[in-house]
Amino acid sequence: MIGFIRSWILGLTAASIIAAVLISLSPPGKSRKITAFAAAFMLIVAMVKPILSFDFGTFQSSALQYGVMAEDYAALLEEENYRLMRVIIEDRSSAYISDKAINLGMEDITVTVLTQKGDDGYPYPNEVFIEAECTAAQKTSLSNYIESEFGVQKSKQHWSVRNGN
User: Fold this and answer.
1) Cα separation, 86 vs 52, whole angstroms
2) Which of 66, 74, 99, 133 is the most buried (most CB within 10 A)?
3) Chain segment 5-31, per-residue pLDDT in tens
4) pTM exceeds 0.70
């Protein structure tokens, strides 16, 4: 399609240049008018001929092919957007939980959040893996926070307590 338009524009440009040269070289008077008429006719033919010889079958198949390619790229883009959204939600959720754990006085904490696609197609925190040095009260407090703020049930919170009291 682009090649067709390119060749059409090049043909029009060449015909325009030839017409301009012929008109400027013709002597003034009746012969210049005849030359201008012939040049105008040549430009009209240069404009219309590619349209008349246009292969609509090829254009249709190309348009269908581009449509399929566009759908494929849209699906890839949707997948990549979901993946990025999932990574961002997991990272930020881990950071929020880590900050809360530090505020509760926990030390040496590692938090990993895993998401699951919800009914609306968006990722939501589903499981949390926590490795920390903490007391039972700190663990209970953080566990309640995770359940209330992130909706992750206690059964989906996996704890590894080191040196806890």
Assistant:
1) 53
2) 133
3) 888 888 889 889 988 998 888 888 898
4) no
Handedness of CA 42, 46, 49, 53 (dihedral sign): positive
d(CA 98, CA 63): 52
106 belongs to a structural domain: yes
Residue 91 sits in the same domain as residue 40:
no
Q: Which amino acid is at 99?
A: D
List 124's β-bridge partners, or say none: 116
75 in a structural domain? no
- For the chain, give the mean pLDDT: 89
Which residue has 């030839």 as its token pair?
Answer: 18
Which of 112, 118, 117, 116 is closest to 157 using CA atoms?
Answer: 112
Question: Where does residue 78 rank: exposed (0-12), middle (13-18), buried (19+ CB within 10 A)?
Answer: exposed
Classify residue 92: in a domain, yes or no: yes
**pLDDT (tens digit, 9 = 90+) per residue, 51-89?**
777 777 777 888 888 899 999 999 999 999 999 999 999
Say how far apart CA 154 and CA 104 lie, in whole Å.
18
Total domains present in the chain: 2
Say yes or no: 103 and 155 in one domain. Answer: yes
